[in-house]
Amino acid sequence: MKGNQELIDTLNDLLAGELTAINQYMVHAEMCEDWGYTKLHDSFEHRAITEMKHAEKLIERILFLEGTPIVSHLNEIRIGAMVPEQVDLDHALEVDTVRDYNEAIVLAGKVLDYATRDVLMDILEDEDKHVDELEELQDQIEQMSLQVFLSTQN
Fold first, then answer.
1. Annotated binding site for heme b
2. Measured in whole angstroms, how far is the alpha carbon of residue 145 from the centre of its chain?
3. What sign does the dihedral 23-27-32-38 (CA atoms) show?
4. Taking the domain 5-151, which CATH number applies?
5. For residues 105 and 94, is the Cβ–Cβ distance under 8 A?
6. What is the mean pLDDT of the chain?
7. The pLDDT of residue 46 is above 90
8. For residue 1, is pLDDT > 90?
């Protein structure tokens, strides 16, 4: 089924965001593992895997719409030197992602591609959860102090 080119381009932009998130989360996960923060490692790694599934869904949809998935494009990967910075950078990435998915959902509706809109709404639900999880970590760091928070991440 030949899809709307503007929507296919938007899906490729979203794909770049997902591929960027995978890389950023994996680096943060491995840094936390290296520092001995197993729970944070697992949390970041789980988010990276979810982002991989999102990328897969986007690739499938782009192909269905007879577009070409662009997997060689990444946005800026922002790596935090310490845990609070990692959480803040990941949160900023997710907030931008939620905005991008909301805009793509509007576009899918505008071009009357409701199946793509449904796929995007499904992914958006996960992205909203990521924002909540990262805000929870930010709150814990603030309320417990960094040292106490990190002592709970072994």
1. 52
2. 26
3. positive
4. 1.20.1260.10
5. no
6. 98
7. yes
8. no
Cα four-point dihedral sign 105, 119, 19, 32: positive
Label residue 114 by pLDDT band (50, 70, 90). Answer: very high
Q: Which residues are annotated as a binding site?
A: 18, 46, 51-52, 54, 94, 127, 130
Q: Where are the beta strands (DSSP E) in the chain?
A: none
Number of H helices, E strands in the chain: 5, 0
CA-based torsion, 82, 88, 93, 98: positive or negative: positive
Annotated binding site for Fe cation: 18, 46, 51, 54, 94, 127, 130
- The confidence score (pLDDT) of residue 146 equals 96
- The residues spanned by each domain of the chain are 5-151
Residue 25, class by beta-carbon neighbours within 10 Å (0-12 exposed, 13-18 middle, 19+ buried)?
buried
CA distance 102 to 7: 13
Q: What's the full length of the chain, in residues?
A: 154
Record the tokens describing residue 7, joined without a space. Answer: 């929507």
- Give the closest residue to 106 by CA, choosing from 115, 95, 98, 117: 117
